[in-house]
Amino acid sequence: YVAKIRKAVLNRLSAVESLQGLENNIVNEVIDTPATYGYYYNLAAGTPFALSHGFSQLSLTRPSPRSKRLENTFFVGASTRPGNGVPLVLLGAKAVAQQVVEDMKTEQIEIAS
Fold first, then answer.
1. Is 46:37 a contact under the CB 8 Å cutoff?
2. Residue 85: pLDDT above 70?
3. pLDDT tens, 28-44?
4. Could you give the dihedral angle defined by the CA atoms of residues 13, 14, 15 and 16, in that order, rounded to the nearest 10 degrees?
5. Largest CA distance in the chain
6. pTM for the full model?
7. Are 65 and 92 in contact (CB under 8 A)?
8. Which of 37, 61, 88, 96 could pair with 83 as two cysteines, CB 3.0-4.6 Å apart?
9. Please, where are the H alpha helices in the chain?
């Protein structure tokens, strides 16, 4: 099945003039599946959206980006607030970065005191 899909993709890409002969120039090839994502990223059933879409895992009910157990540890991505999808993950990354900067400012004030 994978070989069939690979062949179809390469065939489709060969329609673009600059990509003709692409197959002969592939140096490294990795095939990821839901099982791969499940194994490497600890995602339930390899789902790219991380946590379930049930009511208890939507928006504000997702885990906080700040770790409750580890000091100065933050999380960003589909499994934390605000949620999944590239726009929301980017918003979450921006919010985490801002929080880290604020925490660093506070730490510097405390150290200086």
1. yes
2. no
3. 998 888 788 777 766 66
4. 80
5. 66
6. 0.43
7. yes
8. 88
9. 2-13, 34-41, 86-112
